[in-house]
Amino acid sequence: MNRYQHRLHRVLQYIEAHLLEKISVAQLSQVACLSKFHFHRWFTACMGIAVYQYIQRLRLKRASYQLAYRSHLSVTDVAMDNGYENTESLSRAFKKSFGQTPLEFRKQADWASWHLFYQQLEKNRSKIMQQKQYSVQLVEFETTAIAAVEHRGSPFKIASSISNLIAWRKQHKLPPAKSRTFNILYDDPKEVKETDYRMDIAAECGFTVEENAYGIVGKTIPGGLCALLRHHGSDDLLENKVRYLYTEWLQNNDFELRDYPIFLERVTLFPEVTADAIITDIYVPIR
User: Fold this and answer.
1) Of 36, 28, 35, nearest in space to 8 by CA
2) What per-residue string of b and e applies to 104-124 under the rule 16 or more CB within 10 Å gives b?
3) Quick one: the chain helix, strand, coil %, rounded to 5?
4) How many CA atoms lie within 13 A of 143 on its CB side?
5) What confidence tens digit (pLDDT) does each residue in 78-131 have?
């Protein structure tokens, strides 16, 4: 990174850490060590979007997750929690960005349009936020029983699978604070057809999973040696670290891959925490 990339990296981190606070251009200019006369043009040139639009999109992203996965929050709660003056302001932003009102999004979210809306922004952000050096640990993962929803199909339609696991967890009083959350990644979404994509979304479970209306099944993550890389931040930056593990790290270390897919542990979950505070542990089974 050159010094201006470092400055932009600091600005993006600052925005994520203070997303739910009032953020001024004066503050961001100081973080970037730039004059206010240059900051707007510089940020827009680098990110392809004005800074206030960028902040608004991050807040909308958090609001989207709350509407989709936190049914106990009203639309008013979501609006207030994300810095909107009222529900009308949130509704206008949703309609303009996604073509749906918050209530329509909550009822049946158009995730394909949502992902398209964020696609270029995430690509630009990923280029700035990626690192070159990562710290990998060798750990013995203990055999873990899980309750899993087997998502099959487009990764853009994963919301209903997540909702099913959330509903099952509530029914059995297994919130993330009491039960670890895992994703088992059988396929790379770039390497298979959308209809063939496979992923399990799971919760640690200490009892036999009985037949249920949510399609949750009992499974086991096998114990054994794993390469562990801790990821801080949103999922749009995960791919860089997964790629690093499969390329540079494996090439420079004398290990073989075990016959079990890469899996993630969601240590902290969005939107309970802001994007900068998300922690995801990436496990690659090795021997």
Assistant:
1) 28
2) bbbeebebeebeebbeebeeb
3) 50, 20, 35
4) 3
5) 999 999 989 999 999 999 999 999 999 999 988 888 988 988 888 888 777 776
